[in-house]
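3.2 Worked example (two chains)
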Amino acid sequence: MRIAGEQLGFSTQNESAKKSMESAKKRTAIYHHTNLEALIYILRDKCLKFNRMDFVNDIQENEFFKNDDVAKLVYVSCFSYGEESIPMWNIYTTHSEGVRVGLKIEDGTFESLFDNSKIIKTSKDNCTLKFAFSDKRKGYTDSTWLVDIKAKDICYDSSLAKTPGFINCGNIYDMNNMALVKDVAWSYEEETRFTAILRTTKGKITDKSTWVDIPDYTYLLVPITFENLLEMEITFSPWMSDAIQDLIKLAVEKYVPEVKVVFRESKFCGKIR
């Protein structure tokens, strides 16, 4: 699919998006469920992986885009602001190596986790490609696409999600609506997510010869910094062995000795098979 930059709008009057972003700014702690291997990559490489919108586990989310290829411009990294829960352990971690990584920070500053002095990477056909953050054009290595990152609390509203035109209003896509709404069936996740949206200023709606191809990348690796982090909390899976816990502690000591890290046993330890 080809698209014009003029079709990608960021409405400042969108009440749902404003409420979602304002709510996310009030968060002082968010939690990411993952596994030992992914945790080591985060600590060692100082990157968060963002998956493309049409690869998330909620298939209906992509249907909200009317299966439009514009979904390929949207990438997400998912967290939760909720309490520790058995469904989240079961769905998003492996039992023996699962972790719940908490990031604690001053309210309103979660976007400061991202290191916009460095380059965002992805790959295709074994070639590494690079993007810059949208506010750091200097040294930009791709002449077409920039990346905007925002923190959002998910709006759980089945009726909103099914409203025609919520995403695509004629020829204009309101990018602030992207990755914003999920069906109420997913509300147990209590999700805060970071959305990374590829945007371009190239291409005029009235001149299709200037339109650009939507790229076909499946993920972005976004550099992060722990400088503004008040504390990292790592909760071990209720099924995790002492040996795996020791490996995690060694990885923390090796890769982020400067970060205040608190280790916790799951509140479900000894209470679930």
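3.2.1 Second chain
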Amino acid sequence: CTDYRTPLPSPECQTDADCPSKMACIKKKCQNPCSLPAVCSPDQECSVLDSLPLRTVMCVCPSDTIASTDGHCMPIVAGEVECRVDSDCRDTDRCARGSCKEACRIDPCGLNAQCASKIHQSICTCPSGYVGNPHIECTFE
């Protein structure tokens, strides 16, 4: 008996390190994470940091605006504020609407991912036994 099944195509990538600069391995294909829907709010600028083992997506509001709790950019209101920029806050916090808030609360990780707040950023990782892009979703291996 001859087996005529077509072999499955090889995945383009297994990890972000398999992809070119500014690209991440999403569903086994190298993609720009900023091109995915709803990564950042429409008024934010999305950029990809070439961090490894996982690429990091940053959503940044234009100057003279700050991110609100819902992620949208709002004008900075004059008056008493705790912070104007992230460096005014502790290392684990980010400046949001003039207040220092934990980075993981402002920029949460994807489904099933773990979040650590460091250097004013959310550092997202998939837990042991899970794979995927932790900024989007970690799935059971």
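3.3 Remarks
The first helix runs from residue 103 to 106.
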